[in-house]
Amino acid sequence: MVGGGGNGGGCDGDGGHSRRPRAIFMAFGTRGDVFPIAALAAAFAQDQRQYSVVFITHSAHQSLSTHLADCNVRYMPVSSPPVLAAEQLESISCDSVQSNVEHDSFSQRKKIIQVEHRKECLSAVEDVFGNDMSTHGDFIVINFFALEGWHLAELFQVKCIIAAPYFVPYSAPASFERQFKQSLPLLYKYFQEAPLNMVCWTDITHWMWALFMESWGSWRNDSLNLSPIPFTDIGRSALIMGFLRNPKAFLMVLKDVIEKTDYRFILFSSGYQPLDSAIQSVASSVAESSVCQASALHCDIAIHHAGSGSTAAALFAGVAQIACPFLLDQFYWAERLHWLGVAPEPLRRQHLIPDTDNASSIKNAADMLIGTIKSALSSEIKAQAIRIANKLSSEDGIGEALRILKERVLPQSES
After folding, report:
1. For an engineered disulfide with 247, which of 222, 231, 278, 313 has Cβ 3.0 to 4.6 Å away?
2. In Å, what is the CA distance from 253 to each residue of 283, 307, 344, 357?
3. 1-166 and 242-398: identical CATH topology
4. What angle is formed at CA 184 by the lines to CA 178 and CA 185, rounded to 5 degrees?
5. Contact assessment for residue 306 and residue 334, using Cβ atoms and an 8 Å cutoff
6. Confidence (pTM)
7. pLDDT tens digit sequence for 357-387
């Protein structure tokens, strides 16, 4: 498909000394799976000459390298085969005495190839992005057999695009949705309620379910230092404040709660300008203070987004908590707080920050928050929060980590 489309030196790109945005095209599988993506890479390199374009695929597709080079696309091979030889499977006879041993041997070989394949993929992408902290304009394009690229895009914080000239070649297991909902109920709700132009549950069931398979989780955790579960890592700091897209509505909810109850709020802000502006327009008075974790000791409840830092500070302070997760690992921590018994069931986003600031939305959110605060003030939750804090205060996490490190790393005579 690509071989007949070359036009010699006409594909040459231009030079330049300024930083060039980088585009990685990653495709694995047989010729029919790989060649269409190679054609896309060549066409992109011709059309967008300011980009540095790379194509990562099996070394078995070496025949593509000349045409790609003519089109100023860097060819980066990995040693894994497009498919393991079918005859190896066919040679394992069901009535053979050694069939189980041979099958185990074949499975082990597949695992070895998979480990090496993913290691080479990581190395190749690291070679492209290197230590350049700027990723503006960078992205990775993958086909359905190159899901490594999705996880690597998350690691390097670049966009990932799926390119497939065919229908999704697999479907989710029948039990996937049930197991996902049971294991990750809040993340499931998030995908169900995702706004337009965001990843939603339809995308998950269409093809993204494969990203949540256990084999990817171990690689993410062990090799990429990411959370085993996609969408639960805090790595893209630009998203952290995204949930406060309507800070005025958030403040109006708090104001409505104050007017209906005797509750009072202390609001900590880290200098987020839209929130600060909303405070000036809504609040009658503003008291600025530097944030101190110990301040939570003077409050009955800590209401937060379930970020790991806020969660830990409130746990150490021994106060009841109300969590309202918005993205990534916040869902895990919110679930964990409820499971520990130090917080009621987590709030949904619209129960704290409505999409609109009309009277009905504000009233509904305020009423929900009032009910949740009452639950958090229960004697059971308050007592459990104190028990957890006491348990944490007796632990020496740094000391224990240092002990293990010395035990495992230093020679016995030095430890």
Report:
1. 278
2. 12, 21, 19, 9
3. yes
4. 75
5. yes
6. 0.53
7. 788 888 888 888 888 888 888 889 889 989 9
Residue-wise pLDDT tens digits, 73-112: 999 999 998 875 333 333 333 444 445 555 567 678 888 8
3-state DSSP call for residue 52?
A: strand
Angle between helix 247-260 and helix 273-282 axes, rounded to 10 deg? 40
Bridge partner residues of 52 (DSSP):
22
Look at 139-143, 244-248, 365-369 and tell me which has the smallest mean pLDDT.
244-248
At residue 242, what is the residue type? Answer: G
User: What is the CB-side half-sphere exposure of residue 151 using CA atoms within 13 A?
Assistant: 28
Whether residue 139 is predicted with pLDDT greater than 60 in this model: the reply is yes
Q: Which two tokens stand for residue 64?
A: 């593509």
Interior angle at CA 379, CA 375 and CA 385, nearest 5: 90
- From 92, 97, 82, 93, select the one nearest 33 (Cα to Cα): 82
φ, ψ of residue 147 to 5 degrees: the values are: -65, -15
- Provide the residue type at 226 as one letter: L
Q: How far apart are CA 327 and CA 324, in angstroms?
A: 10
Using CA atoms, how far residue 393 sits from 51, 175, 321, 397, 408, in Å, is 53, 42, 18, 10, 26
Residue at 368: amino acid letter: M
Q: Which amino acid is at 360?
A: S
Please say whether the dihedral angle defined by the alpha carbons of residues 320, 326, 327 and 331, taken in this order, is positive or negative. positive
Lowest mean pLDDT across 18-32, 237-251, 379-393: 237-251
- DSSP for 298-339, written as a single string: G-SEEEE---HHHHHHHHHHT-EEEE---STTHHHHHHHHHH
Residue 389, judged by CB atoms within 10 A of its CB (0-12, 13-18, 19+), counts as middle
As given in the structure block, the two tokens for residue 403 are: 């002990």
Task: Write out the two tokens for 107.
Answer: 């499975």
Select from 128, 131, 33 the least CA-distant residue to 76: 128
CATH class of 242-398: alpha beta
CATH topology of domain 1-166: Rossmann fold (3.40.50)
Residues 92 and 85: their CA atoms lie apart, in Å, by: 12
Tens of pLDDT along 153-209?
Answer: 988 888 888 887 666 656 788 888 998 998 888 888 889 988 777 888 988 988 888
Task: Provide φ and ψ at 141, rounded to 5°.
Answer: -110, 135
Domains of the chain by residue range: 1-166, 167-233, 242-398
H or E stretch including 160? strand 159-162
